[in-house]
Every structure is written in C-alpha cells, then in structure tokens.
Amino acid sequence: MKGARVLAWGRAVPDQVVTNHDLEKLFETSDEWIVQRTGIKERRIAKPEDTAVSLGAKAAQNALTKSGLKAEDIDLIICATATGDYLFPATSCLIQDKLGAINAASFDISAACTGFIYGLNTAYTYIASGQFKNVLVIAVDLMSRFTDWGDRRTAIIFGDGAGAAVLQACAPEENAFKSFYIKSRGDGDCTLYVPNVGNQYPVKAEDITAKPTMVYMDGQAVYQFAVKAVPDALEKALAKASMVAADIDYFIPHQANYRIIESAAKRFKVPVEKFICNIDRYGNTSAASIPIALDEALENGTIDPKQKHKLAFVGFGAGLTWGACVLEF
Ligand code: UT7
Fold it and tell me: What is the share, in percent, of the chain residues with pLDDT greater than 90?
C-alpha cells in the first residue's frame, strides 16, 4: 500500500462581511445573544456573482499554486458540497474545467458538513490503492443561498466559503494519515435538511412560490447529536491511530458552534486553545470549515509543517454524518 501526504492547502472566502449587527436589522436578535450562544461575530456571504464553482475553483487554484503542481498533473478531483451549482453535472467537473485539469476524473461527495473528512478519506483510499497519484480535494458551500433570512434560528450560524488540499502518493513510511473514522445515521434526515428540492418534489408551477427551498434545522436536536458525535469520532480515530487526545498538538473541528468545541475540549481534558477556532469571523461554512481553519493556521504560523504537528480533524452534519481523521503535518 502506498502512503499519502498533503502538498498544500488553500482557501477562498467571499469579500462581503455580514456582522451580527447587520442581522439585527433583519430580525429580532442581538450581537450579544449570537456571540453567547454560538461564538460567531461575523460571516462572509457570497455576492450574486459568486458560485460554488467560482469559490471552489479559487480555493483549489490557491492550493495548487502552493503545491508546485500544474493543473494537468491532477489525476482526480473530489468536491465535497451540499450546495453545488446544479443538481448535475457535478460541481467538481465544472471546477476541473476552470482549472484546466484536463487529465483528471471528477466527482462530488454529499456528506454535508462532514464532507471534507469523507472527501479526504476517499482521496487517501484512491492513493493508497495505487490508482491515482495526485488528488485534489475541495470543500465548498454557499449556505447563504438556501438560508431563510427571516429565520433567526438558522440565519445566524451559516456563512459561505471554500477550502482545498492537494494530496500526493508517497512511500509508506512518509504517510501523513494515521487513521480515518467515518459514520452515518440516516434516521436524522429531517433534523437538518433542505426540503422541496430533489426527485421527491417534481416542480409544478404552483409549488414554485408555495414551497420554499430553505434550510430547516432543529438546532437543539443537532446540538445534542453533535456533543456526542464529536467525542465518538475522535475516540474512534485516536484508538485506530494508537493515540490519546494528549498526543494531539492541534484539533481542527468543524466550526458549527463554539459551545460544541468547548464541550469537546472539556470532555478530552485538553485546553480549548488546542482547538483551532475561527468561527467568530466566518460562522459555519459547512464542508469548508475545516480546510479554511487549517489553511489560516498554517498562514499565521500556529501550525508549522517543520514541527510535524500531530493533528485531528473532526466533523459532523446533515445525514446525519460524522467523522474524524488523525494526521501528521
Ligand atoms: O453544521 C451543521 C450543524 N449545525 C449545528 O451544529 C447547529 C447546532 N445548534 C446550535 O448551534 C443551536 O441550537 C443554535 C445556535 C442554532 C440555537 O441556539 P439554542 O440555544 O439551541 O436556541 P433555541 O433554538 O433553543 O432557542 C432558545 C430561545 C428561543 O426563545 P424561547 O422560545 O425560549 O422564548 C428562541 O426563540 O432563543 C430564541 N432564539 C433567539 N433569540 C435571539 C433563537 N434564535 C435566536 C436569535 N436571537 N438568533
């Protein structure tokens, strides 16, 4: 079996900043309530010209440039998204075209906020099997396009963004990935979902105005799920890697709610500072939150590749899905 390493990370977020004070003008809420309950102060919201393809391609190009590879060197593009440009074709195919990655195969992964971990696991498996050498993993979501901007229970948490990683085959002794754990539980399908799109809802003229296609989220139920899913995934991935939480230098959790992150730190008895957190500036960018946080941490020097930090990613989301990955980077 081959090993895999990460050559580079990248990210792209929209320029438009929407603060909690901006939301106070849309519905009854307050900056204080949002900060206390979620840790979010502001988020980036896509402008009309931004799409999953344009943001995803920007993040991918950013990672590709840092990797030193050319677009033609990429063998496989995996895009994790729940908010792609179309039902089909896949967002990954359209990004392939934008990059000029003419030698790649491309497909999308639908695992909502856990999508990046599912995508990374898939990329690693293709590389370990020897089928592909250079794999580009992209995670992009424009949750704002499916947000009801009158619903204070959901509109406060989401933001838009994209992240990417370039993986390459290497010798087994250089393998960066120590373990993966991914899981799903389909009985939670109506806890967090977008109704009225998909084959169950063939479009009839009268439906277009009557049936909104906005995110429905039972926030309390998702919260209860998340505070169990995060430790479950981390425990399983750590055990597979023959490690304990104290061995990890930095945890990079899905940025959904600062209280969920605090609860995980408490559970594992590690200082919360070991959990990389940028939720205050971006909100919950769904599948993109982990690679955005990692790329920022590399840029500001918190994570230094020279020190071979041991990292743990953990995510959860609609499906319900959850998962974790332990790696050295
Ligand atoms: O990445 C995908 C996964 N998603 C998540 O991880 C989300 C997990 N859930 C959460 O983060 C939290 O459930 C929320 C932040 C979404 C909501 O916080 P909460 O503490 O669970 O609030 P709640 O929905 O239980 O509402 C509590 C009270 C309610 O008032 P009453 O009915 O008790 O009088 C709400 O109406 O807070 C009220 N409320 C608000 N007040 C001011 C709900 N949203 C707001 C708001 N501003 N934005």
Answer: 91
